[in-house]
């Protein structure tokens, strides 16, 4: 029996549904994470050697970030797929010691010292759950051990609960210059049902305090499509944000994680159903309209800034070609030709650190043409993809390869093509991750 590759022009799986309503119906499913190519896994026994090779290199991308993961939360929010461990003071203290040891094991190498880092991001989990003293120690240790640029953006992610004056002051004194706080909705009733403890009044009070201090950028996350969140409540969430005059905001679509607490709660009837995909599309459009009417600057498909003070460097750089040094249990980042993931199981993480080893549990080799795929993902997050320019930069005729599918997308009104550059229409913006992933998959199909 002879085997044949599918015909070169078999592009059916990359086409949108033929519809007059692309916002609601262009695709049957929506992708919400970042678009990325398929890469080859690295066998665990090879990880230490590859890490050592990278750390002994004397160069790398001029764009460099550090991601530090704090894998604890004071409560499990029903909508969240990132929960790892319940916060306990003794465990958190043990973790901070181990994390500082990991920083010491990582710093001082040729690669780390080669160039300054432009962004440091404390993410989680809930970094703001840590005691003030631990936050101070962690930020000071990063500043001491790693070369940071003079304008380095140092972000502390977290939530309003247990984040009061003393902790805010400690974080600011240590050098945090950007706060990214998960609010999700200002509606007290919905907040409580989803596991967010603080009422609207307290959320507004903390945010107003941060704004009035004026010492650091303050941005928040809001989510649309939550159970019981009508379009009016969503509009009120955005208008409340606008009235606070913070520095920026992310407007995220609710993701329902399979087997997660939200899905289970809806199934057993303890929570009403969240918005359908079509309703989410309408919420998305309303969100964009309100932000545009308030003259906010769009930094990515989801992120908006009031003034140039908000840069969102870590988020932008991590989608592009930059190197990212991962630190902490559950952290991950691309470094030169590999993606490294730090052990997510706390016990294994602690034992590796005790043995003086970088706790790596998983790795991926950069696929062929990965820099092209990163350029596509980065540009699509900004609402365009300059295929003509990328063809020259990567020596590949992208317009010829992609023409059959992008012509159909243009017909369905997901994109506009001008001088070899693809621009997302409003419906196209809503489906941006699907479109970016399809561009990548279609190119990768021929490799
Ligand atoms: S939303 Fe934040 S605080 Fe809530 S469970 Fe997820 S990571 Fe933890």
How would you describe the overall organization of this protein?
The chain has 447 residues and is an alpha/beta fold. It folds into 2 domains: 12-29 and 369-445, Arc Repressor Mutant, subunit A; 44-319, Alpha-Beta Barrel (TIM Barrel), CATH 3.20.20.70. It contains 18 helices and 18 strands. The chain has helices at 22-25, 47-56, 89-106, 110-113, 132-145, 165-174, 188-194, 200-213, 231-244, 261-267, 277-293, 313-319, 346-354, 370-381, 387-394, 398-411, 426-430, 432-445, and strands at 40-41, 64-70, 72-73, 85-86, 117-124, 148-158, 178-184, 217-224, 248-253, 297-298, 303-305, 323-327, 332-335, 338-342, 360-365, 384-386, 415-418, 421-424. Strands 10-11-9-8-7-6-5-2-12 form a 9-stranded mixed beta sheet, sandwiched between helices. A 4-stranded antiparallel beta sheet has the order 1-15-14-13, covered by helices on one side. A 3-stranded antiparallel beta sheet has the order 16-18-17. Strand 13 (332-335) and strand 14 form a beta hairpin. The longest helix is centred in the first third of the chain and has 18 residues, at 89-106. It is globular, with a radius of gyration of 22 Å. The protein starts with 21 loop residues before the first helix and ends with a helix. The relative contact order is 0.15. Residues 1-8 have low confidence and may be disordered. Bound molecules: iron/sulfur cluster (SF4). Iron/sulfur cluster binds next to loops.
